[in-house]
Fold each of these.
Amino acid sequence: SGYITLDSGYKNTGATKSAITFLDGEEGILRYRGYPIEQLAEKSTFLEVAYLLIYGELPTKKQLEDVAYAISRHTLIHEDMKKFFDGYPSKTHPMGQLASLVCSLSSFYPESLNPNPTKEETELTMLKLVAKMPTIVSWIFKKAIGHPLMYPQNKFDYVSNFLYMTFGHRTEEYKMDPVLVDAMNKLLILHADHEQNCSTSTVRMVGSSDCNLYASVAAGITALWGPLHGGANQAVIEMLETIKNDGGDVDKWVAKAKDKNDPFRLMGFGHRVYKNFDPRAKIIKKTCDDVLAKLGINDPVLGIAKRLEEVALNDEYFISRKLYPNVDFYSGIIYRAMGFPTDMFTVLFALGRLPGWIAQWKEMRENNEPIGRPRQVYTGEIAREYVSMENR
Ligand code: CMC
């Protein structure tokens, strides 16, 4: 079979060509379609960024209005899907539900199932997925806390509608808080794409077998769940809480993270590609200070996070390995201040990453990429004769 190059974890193997996201890990640069992440986070809305990622250009006013209107026509999910929410035990992790529900959309919207979809079918599926995701996410939340589900109100913009369905109540007028809308937009933008990370590569891999978009994205959601990837935002808060309850001795926990005989790692630290700093973490740290100040919240774990960062950044172990805070380090503190429970954090990451997954799936299909099928270096037994049961 010829010579196979082994690269476990694809540390140095390009799996595709892509024109969506540029990332320079040495310089700490991240750009979507050429636009710096700093400018997008400051000036645009999440829906604008979603359009940019999926279609390649920032939308004109008319294009954005048209897409927002089209999305507003699809924000409901099929009423029968409510039965799924009733079927889960109340303590189910939201990520498992989200993956199953997104995969199930393929059953309710079968135009997605054509293995060679027309442009119109693909457009419709992309639109439906973007439109229905906030409804699914907020309904998972509502079910978990035992509150009645809130139906979308299309007078709201995309992010506001999500916040309304999540934090609104049937019994009172919902007061939209511009601080939350702004913070949510920023966080979703910062998570919107990150080139060939584990979940995105999964979406492309699954999609490469001509699998439909819903199922491909469901696979991405599953990949994102793990604590080494998107699940790190939940793991960070749990770690900070543990450190707080242990007396707040940051040096002790940094020592544990350095100890090779201890499986503990500093969650929210380190990145496969960033070896200077994570530009998203810089923006999120500042946003965290702003949002907590504006909401008048004093979260003791923020102080622990800052001390942990300071100690680690001055420690030879972290310096020599170029380990810096990543996107997940401060994001959970903001989510918590906004009112989200810890186990919803990774779901919010998924909501943000959705346009990236869609853009990457679309790009792969348009470029007619071949099915993903890595090779291996076989290390097992070469050839053996079958041994009958009585002789084993
Ligand atoms: N704490 C302590 N040591 C670490 C950490 C950490 N967080 N991250 C890496 N190291 C050490 C690691 O032990 C290794 O040391 P040595 O060379 O002595 O064996 C060295 O640094 C290189 O690490 P690696 O595991 O080979 O690097 P990787 O590129 O395979 O892994 C990573 C990247 C993000 C999985 C890893 O840094 C990690 O586990 N971080 C904690 C989890 C986390 O925050 N994940 C979120 C990533 S960013 C957003 C996202 O993708 O969702």
Amino acid sequence: MASVTTRTVLITGANRGLGLEMVKQMVEGPSPLPYLFACCREPDGPRGKELQALAKSHPDAITVIQLDVADLCSIKKCAERVGSLVGPGGLNLLINNAAVLFHGTFQSTSPEDMLTTFNTNVVGPMSLTKELLPHLREAALASRTPGMSCSKAVVVNLSSMAGSMTGTPESYSRFPVMSYRISKAALNMLTICSALEFQKDNILSVLLHPGWVRTDMGGKEADIDKQESVGGLLSVIDSLTEKHNGAILDYKGVSLPW
Ligand code: NDP
């Protein structure tokens, strides 16, 4: 069970898949418990049940917050709530994990799917990072440690090799998910922009590819399970330094091609 040495963390899409597994491993890991804002679209609906049960058994470590990353009002409300709870130590780690994937090629993707995917996978992380910036700045200032690290302030954006410019005909026919690919390529550039812009505030921005993982999104045929992926992702997050600002790494810490 991996963990991270950080104090306050916000995870989007925390009710299932990799997001829920991150919450589990962080609260059950060997390091002292971080304080977690576990965000999801419908905390009181059936899909929020597992997260709510976990939060109930760790009431001092987990606060569940409603957040639809495709809705700016919901993002603003979530940021306000975080602001009211986070205190002067700010927010150390923001994990933009929530995403959608629609199957579709150039010819079959509808404008609606394209817009929904872009709104959720790119505009969502952009707006949430913007709204939480004051709290990330507070965390960077409050930390007495030198350099950049997750005990200071880090924005992690979950990317995918599907967004890489190195796509081949084989990989395209295996994953015909055009809108998703474009959204992850855009998320990569969004992260480069935030790395360049927030470096002066000692806020590190990084892209992580979790591997091809058996979740609802990854499917049953994927290479690895979520325990292995998240164990690796948390170790990588724990080892981040300023040299990783603007990098794209996989769950083993290996640098990936753009
Ligand atoms: P899942 O499909 O299993 O889970 C997606 C999560 O995102 C769910 O919690 C879902 O919530 C949430 N979500 C979707 N739309 C919104 C929204 N508008 N607002 C808030 N939450 C939302 O995906 P994974 O766990 O597999 O993927 C997690 C991340 O890892 C994603 O960014 C994905 O692109 C990336 N990734 C995954 C890979 C894999 O093989 N699994 C490979 C490469 C990258 P709800 O239950 O409400 O729908």
